[in-house]
What we know:
Blueprint: E1 38-39, E2 41-55, E3 67-76, E4 80-91, E5 94-102, E6 132-139, E7 153-160, H1 164-174, E8 178-179, E9 190-196, E10 201-203, H2 205-209, E11 244-246, E12 250-262, E13 285-289, E14 299-303, E15 318-321
Amino acid sequence: xxxxxxxxxxxxxxxxxxxxxxxxxxVRSWPEIKDGPKLLGFVGFxxxxxxxxxxxxxxxxxxxxxxxxxxxxxxxxxPIKIVGIRYYGEGTYGEYxxxxxVDKNSLKDLKGIMPIPKELKEKQIDFSKVFQVxxxxxxxxxxxxxxxxxxxxxxxxxxxGGSVKERIDYxxxxxxxxxxxxxxxxxxKFVDIIAVTKGKGFQxxxxxxxxxxxxxxxxxHRRMIGTLGPWHPDWVRxxxxxxxxxxxxxxxxxxxxxxxxxxxREKPITPKGGFVNYGEVTNQYVVLHGSIPGxxxxxxxxxxxxxxxxxxxxxxxxxxxSTESKQGV
Length: 329
């Protein structure tokens, strides 16, 4: 007989568990920072995982100051190109677009990505109404050797810190230029990782929610729930674990530490035989402590941390970064 009392299986905080609307993650909220102005986000591509040996930088860890081994994730971060600026105001119903600026020299890069009018008419922007400033960034997929897609994508990244005027001036200074990862963050700092998880399709109750198997002698089935709920209310509530879409959900990993930012020409990271299902890393890359959501080649969005409580670390000493084959040989 099943136990009468237990905690529910699966968090309702992630409900409904449906497919993400886009492979490019969207950021629901941006933090407010004191230093700046600077970009509050960046974009990269998950290359794979390896392991590293480094001196434990965590102050209150049992192994603080000693060499430890840990799994790390490698994310390739080619430079993004700033092709436009979008100015937002604040009204009764939230933020609204006050105006836009587009770099005319980047129009050829946007062909086939977004609709471009034949004639760009410059509209007067009332900067007194501007409350927030976002840049429109072009993700340069063609620069990533292991990616099959060559057509670029666009995404919005907020500029934070400083006054509104300083944000506007900073956005105009990088308009039409390529921005590297160092202009967003550095080694030893925290970032939030937003990505779409690996899709697993339609799955049953047990895999989707982690509920227990019914007893072996149960009638007809074991991998289902014992009851759909009480007689009243006379409908099945959404809190009842049921089969459905599993994976391909947008998820956020808070406070992932950046261990290393490097150029593959100076410090090669590609393992022997290449990263599985990805290949060779040819652009600047970032090494993160631990794992992140999504399979290889998945677009990963970095965000300035919104829940950071532990201070940044100035220097992380990595003694070994594995480049051995991941092919299982």
